[in-house]
């Protein structure tokens, strides 16, 4: 893999982690939402990653010289939680059913915060990888001076 492909792979990882972060923040923001336009409580969402061989945009130029193609990552799909909602007894709530129970999203904010921290660290790891590649390119250019 050449250096420019490494940058492209890291960039695809950054993009995928950004999308994951956006969904995690949406989950946290809606952890107490009992009514959505679709009806019922908010449903937790998560991303599914998949390998993306087309992420290496620069590899076509160097295709002849590479032993193996660079593979990035992409968000293959967004999965919505299908678990039944959590029922809480709140008879005065406007969304309470006939028995006084309100359906809340089945979420664990602590788990989502840990996932958010993981996504942030993964994003930072890709930034560090790009920075290291940039430094290698700069040092290579300095050798030719």
Note down, in words, how this protein is organized:
The chain has 145 residues and is an alpha+beta fold. The protein has one domain (3-143). The chain has helices at residues 3-29, 109-143; strands at 45-52, 72-80, 86-89, 101-104. The strands form two sheets. Strands 1-2 form a two-stranded antiparallel ribbon. A two-stranded antiparallel sheet has the order 3-4.
Please describe the structure with a list of short key phrases separated by commas or semicolons.
145 residues, alpha+beta, 2 helices, 43% helix, elongated
Continuous helix count: 2
Poorly predicted residue ranges: none
Number of structurally distinct domains:
1
The counted number of beta strands is 4
Percent strand: 15-25%
Q: Judging from the principal axes of the Cα atoms, what is the shape?
A: elongated
N-to-C SSE series? HEEEEH
Give the distance, in angstroms, between the N- and C-terminal Cα atoms: 25 Å
Largest sheet: 2 strands, antiparallel
| Helix percentage range | 40-55%
- Rg (CA only): 22 Å
Derived structural class = alpha+beta
Major β-sheet strand ordering: 1-2
**Residue-averaged pLDDT, rounded?**
88
């Amino acid at each position: 893999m050449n250096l420019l492909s490494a940058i492209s792979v890291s960039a695809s990882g950054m993009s995928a982690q950004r999308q994951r972060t956006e969904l995690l923040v949406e989950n946290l923001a809606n952890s107490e939402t009992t009514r959505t336009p679709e009806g019922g409580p908010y449903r937790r969402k998560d991303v599914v990653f998949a390998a993306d061989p087309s992420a290496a945009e620069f590899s076509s130029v160097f295709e002849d010289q590479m032993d193996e193609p660079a593979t990035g990552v992409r968000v293959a799909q967004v999965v919505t939680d299908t678990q039944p909602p959590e029922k809480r007894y709140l008879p005065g709530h406007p969304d309470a059913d006939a028995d006084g129970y309100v359906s809340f999203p089945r979420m664990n904010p602590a788990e989502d915060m840990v996932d958010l921290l993981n996504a942030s660290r993964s994003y930072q790891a890709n930034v560090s990888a790009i920075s290291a590649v940039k430094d290698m390119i700069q040092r290579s250019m300095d050798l030719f001076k």
